[in-house]
Write a structure and sequence with these properties.
By secondary structure, the protein is mainly beta. The chain is built from 1 helix and 13 strands; from the N terminus they run βββββαββββββββ. It has a domain at 41-148: Jelly Rolls (Sandwich). The chain has one helix at residues 58-61, and strands at 4-5, 11-12, 27-30, 36-39, 48-53, 69-70, 75-85, 90-97, 103-109, 113-117, 124-131, 136-146, 154-155. It is globular, with a radius of gyration of 16 Å. 22% of the residues are buried. It comes from Streptococcus lactarius. Pfam families: Sec-ASP3.
Length: 156
């Protein structure tokens, strides 16, 4: 049974460190608090470091979706807890896809918060961490929460 929770955000952690998108030459260390320390001084800019999905093919990947379902045409805010060295060298990208896997929208930021409206034609979405000249960072978690309190829902 799916429960609807109003005005509640859920912390989304790194997950399995083996499932990172970019491992070559990287040192990835998980801490007891659920944080991840990532180091790679030779990381090229624009490289996808980690991807979280709202829809997966369990039969093929043996992974469950790590992102909550969102309501169409609803405004949300993605807030990330991360420390990067140098500062502002990790970017957050959210990609919206239709039911055929075609990209219908995209938002990117190097700041700690990203406001967005879930598109009406979107069927699934992904959140990605991208390199922007980083050397190391410590990732704690991120949250996705509704912006307005009226009719705001995050489905789990």
């Amino acid at each position: 049974m799916i429960k609807m929770k109003e005005n509640e955000s859920r912390r989304i952690y790194w997950g399995d460190t083996v499932l990172a998108d970019y491992l070559w030459g990287s040192t990835i260390q998980a801490t007891a608090q659920g944080s991840v320390q990532f180091q790679n001084p030779l990381m090229p800019s624009g490289q996808v470091l980690k991807t979280w999905h709202s829809q997966t093919n369990f039969g093929a990947t043996r992974q469950i979706p790590s992102l909550p379902l969102l309501k169409r045409e609803q405004g949300y805010e993605l807030a990330i807890e991360i420390e990067a060295n140098p500062a502002h060298t990790v970017m957050v990208e959210i990609i919206f896809k239709d039911r055929f896997g075609e990209i219908v929208g995209r938002r990117v930021t190097a700041e700690g918060c990203l406001s967005f409206t879930y598109p009406d034609q979107a069927y699934a979405y992904e959140v990605r961490l991208l390199s922007a000249g980083l050397q190391e960072f410590t990732f704690h978690y991120f949250t996705i929460q509704p912006i307005s309190s009226e009719g705001a829902e995050v489905l789990e």
